UniProtKB/TrEMBL annotation:
SUPFAM superfamilies: Mitochondrial carrier. It comes from Drosophila melanogaster. The gene is Dmel\CG5254. This is Mitochondrial 2-oxodicarboxylate carrier. It is a multi-pass membrane protein. It comes from the Eukaryota. It catalyses: 2-oxoheptanedioate(in) + 2-oxoglutarate(out) = 2-oxoheptanedioate(out) + 2-oxoglutarate(in); glutarate(in) + 2-oxoglutarate(out) = glutarate(out) + 2-oxoglutarate(in); L-2-aminoadipate(in) + 2-oxoglutarate(out) = L-2-aminoadipate(out) + 2-oxoglutarate(in); citrate(in) + 2-oxoglutarate(out) = citrate(out) + 2-oxoglutarate(in). It is found in: Mitochondrion inner membrane.
Length: 306
């Protein structure tokens, strides 16, 4: 009976992790999507040609310039281009991430009675890599939508159908850039979870609820920001692989490391950090939102439904 009770408790705990993680993902993507669109637009643009302006090509000179030009040329709704793939993906994606993270922590304690910083980092790496495999087809569709500069937006279904018809379901189609996505998500979550939980366990808690909330927000923001600095080259490679190629019909960006090498040789080291500002603007506060919504939702479910 005791074993059965333990199984039920474990199953319920896992279900609460799924619900809390899914809720956190949905809320975060709805709030932060415009910055993700801007980040993608900046990352996929190469150095402009001398006659780009004469040809009518729009070039973005930073975050706020991108916001202004998108609004002027495409309207305010363009800030939420590609929102459906993340909404469809983020709920299961975050559910998978938090579930895998919580469930794999004991595997990486290596005999230690309590989790260590290495435990949090390895569990985060595992969670990020697995979520990337699940979410990559949605990322391919999202990037295609975000890269489209036409004022009239195609539906998510129409874009996905077009990719499948033209390139199929494999590594040149709906699963294009999967290794870059795995690198991006794996590295991000390794740093993100490793930093957040390690620092949170060191910095003393506050008895006052508002100060404790600010403590967690600050650590979550720093965790998301640090993770952005570490994984941004993978993100740039992913955007180049999954986005439109410079010359239609010719595949320039294929592998993750080779794409990083091309960007470095042709555009310099700084190009590997393109989109860093909007990425931090999104995933700094977004990281704090995600962790706090998960923690408070999870605690609420544990206290009220266990």
């Amino acid at each position: 009976m005791a074993g059965q009770q333990h199984d039920i408790s474990h199953a319920k705990r896992a279900a609460f992790q799924v619900l809390a993680g899914g809720s956190a993902g949905f809320l975060e993507v709805c709030i932060m999507q415009p910055l993700d669109v801007v980040k993608t637009r900046i990352q996929i643009q190469a150095t402009p040609a001398p006659n780009a302006a004469a040809l009518g090509e729009v070039h973005y000179n930073g975050v706020f310039d991108c916001f202004a030009k998108m609004y002027r040329h495409e309207g305010i709704s363009s800030y939420w281009k590609g929102i459906m793939p993340p909404i469809l993906a983020e709920t299961p994606k975050r559910a998978i991430k938090f579930l895998v993270f919580e469930q794999t922590k004991p595997l990486f304690q290596f005999g230690s009675p309590t989790p260590t910083p290495l435990t949090f980092s390895l569990a985060g790496l595992t969670a990020g890599t697995l979520e990337a495999i699940a979410v990559n087809p949605f990322e391919v569709v999202k990037v295609a939508q975000q890269a489209d500069r036409q004022k009239k937006m195609l539906s998510t279904f129409a874009v996905a159908k077009g990719i499948i018809q033209q390139d199929g379901l494999g590594f040149s189609g709906l699963n294009k850039g999967i290794t870059a996505t795995m690198g991006r998500n794996g590295v991000f979550n390794m740093v993100y979870f490793g930093f957040y939980h390690s620092v949170k366990n060191v910095v003393p808690e506050y008895k006052e609820s508002h100060l404790e909330f600010l403590r967690k927000v600050t650590i979550g923001f720093l965790a998301g920001t640090l993770a952005c600095f570490v994984n941004i080259p993978f993100d740039v490679a992913k955007s180049r692989i999954q986005g439109p190629q410079p010359v239609p019909g010719q595949i320039k960006y294929r592998g993750t490391l080779s794409s990083m090498g091309i960007v470095y040789r042709e555009e310099g080291f700084r190009a590997l950090y393109k989109g860093l500002v909007p990425k931090i603007m999104r995933l700094g506060p977004g990281g704090a939102i995600l962790l706090l919504v998960f923690e408070y939702s999870y605690d609420y479910l544990l206290h009220n439904y266990s």
